[in-house]
């Protein structure tokens, strides 16, 4: 691992060229010849030949826009909102990007940034030390981010420490811990924007529920028998958790006059290999689960029951991250690749395998493209990797199916 550097001269934003990808060793490989294994030519002009024109149109459907590279740490987390991209790494910096250039940065004291989520003018970051840190955008300077606290707050810790009933014995350290604190690394954050609730999942086998505006811990749920690797809060009041114990669980949120609680209503999956990532589509009707065996399972909701819809097999190694947008699903893997899946009815088809990263793809973020239309939904996909880079892709839901390559 290279040492962290703050020298701006060493910073480099690389616009993609035709040779942006790492090529396969066989020059004539079908995967190598596929139009999806090449970045788009942004300066292309129309050609009189209809065939060439069609090829160029297809090339623009799924293509690499560029790469963001700063040799300071492996990329572990991404978040995007209002044309800003936030990147977290195992350095002490959270960097903010705009229009493919560095816009701002702020530094934490804990090092590894495992998760980032944005709510209004606040940025929440989850860290290896088990803390969730809060940052605020300054109203008079949108490029300035100031620390606004830590979850739980010092006052809440002090208040909880007075009562013996707030303690429990942590399995890892074999000592008493306060229930409002995570005693192991934060693995994931999720947000219910409608109710202002922040969810944090941890390797301590719990997920916790926070009031975003007051930083108050509302509930701690002992969810799994091993590390919780993913938590997703759906808009319909349902929360999904996936764990290294091989299970995916569904929790129903219930409000009472004075508090909130989450009740386990269903276990979707119970397998030997670890659950590594979860994603839920916008309507909450489909949930996707990535596993350490490289497989993506999905379930479809009909009324109040869930039906296993099938398995997506496109990766050779563990699926490390998942994102859903429109009719598309993106899966990033330890095999360094990203699969783009399109859902049509009950069928999922692999449109493309995006290659080019030199390390495992650890995180994904997606936002709607400004050029998106009702007839042609387009998305901007960001992929963060342990190769210390972030790649930016343009993906259209109208892209033709990839007929060559390893994915079927």
From TrEMBL:
Keyword Transmembrane helix present in the record's keywords: the answer is: no
* Cited SUPFAM superfamilies: WD40 repeat-like
Keyword annotations for this protein? Repeat, WD repeat
What Gene3D superfamilies does this protein map onto? YVTN repeat-like/Quinoprotein amine dehydrogenase
Task: Name where the WD repeats lie.
Answer: 179-220, 221-252, 268-300, 354-403
In terms of SMART domains, this protein maps to: WD40 (SM00320)
Entries under CDD domains matching the protein = WD40 (cd00200)
Whether Repeat counts among this entry's keywords is: yes
Protein's name in the database: Protein JINGUBANG isoform X1
Q: What is the species listed in this Swiss-Prot or TrEMBL entry?
A: Solanum pennellii (Tomato)
The top of its lineage is:
Eukaryota, Viridiplantae, Streptophyta, Embryophyta, Tracheophyta
- Gene that encodes it: LOC107006569
